[in-house]
Amino acid sequence: MSEGTMQRRAQRADQREMRDERAGRAGRHGRVLVSAAALPVILLAAGCSSDSGSDGEAKASASTSASVSPSPTVQAAAYRTLPEPCEVLSKKTLGELVPKGTKSGKEGSSDDTASRSSCSWNSLDNNGVKGSQFRWLNVSLLRFESDVTRGSGEELAQEYYDKQVTDARSAEGARNTEAEPLAGTGDQATAVAYDLKKKEGTFKQQTIVARVENVVVTLDYNGAGLAGDSTPDAGELMKDAEKAAKEVVAAVTEANEKGSSAKVPGSGSSASSGSSGSSGSSKSPAKSGTSSTKPVKKS
Questions:
Q1: What's the CA gap between 216 and 292, in Å, rounded?
Q2: What distance separates the 2 farthest-apart alpha carbons in the chain?
Q3: Cα(19)–Cα(149) distance, rounded to whole angstroms?
């Protein structure tokens, strides 16, 4: 083989090696470009996936927060029941207020005696031609349950108490009306006194409205001298009424003491601030209006 032939073969071998090297570099460069181009797509996809998860978590969190938002609450009523209305006064007290009618107690009708009840007594001491002494006594009890839409039992009782005092001070036909606060009778109490002239005689009306916790007590007591007998002393009547009112308030508290055998309402119904606490009770021949606002004197 000639020297020229050997040189040509060596040149061709060098050329092939150079082509292979260039081809290898081009392949590697292409792979790098492809990988670099794919990277933004992967990052974009990852970013979308991450954002989607955040939105979902935020919505789920908001939904959970809304579903567990606290419900409105109101303070529970302190007293859950009422005493038997015809048993709130002792025989001794009844003997002083209605001497001829201690056994005449008549319970008013009520569809829920744990929320509203009443009892009335009347007494007629007939002295023949010398005339007679008439007495009438009525006790009404009204208990209020707490209600998230209306307020606590105590607040509702306060509203009804104010209304009862207002009603007593503005009784139809009342004369010489006087009203004053009464201490030592429940959480608050007002005594209202006035005269009512009827064809039978002049009736001396005494009304005491008291609130103890979520219960309102209204005690009405009046007396008259009939057929020519003398009109009873209003001061003495009020003294007796005040004593009786304190006794009724104590009976309400006792009925709700721990361990008491008093009835507990089964229906859970609540008394309405606009309803009367003496449903079905007998009416006094003298009392033309119901009892009950804030203590002020009115003449």
A1: 11
A2: 177
A3: 92
Task: Lowest mean pLDDT of 30-34, 162-166, 205-209, 277-281, name the range.
Answer: 277-281
Q: Looking at the whole model, is its pTM more than 0.90?
A: no
Residue 83's Cα: distance from chain center in Å?
A: 20
* Strand 175-181 with 188-198, pairing: antiparallel
pLDDT of 264 strictly over 50 = no
Query: What does the alpha-carbon distance between residue 121 and residue 105 come to, in Å, rounded to a whole number?
Result: 5
Say how many C-beta atoms besides its own lie within 10 A of residue 178's C-beta: 15
In the chain, what percentage of residues exceed pLDDT 90?
57
Better-scored residue on pLDDT, 59 or 70: 70
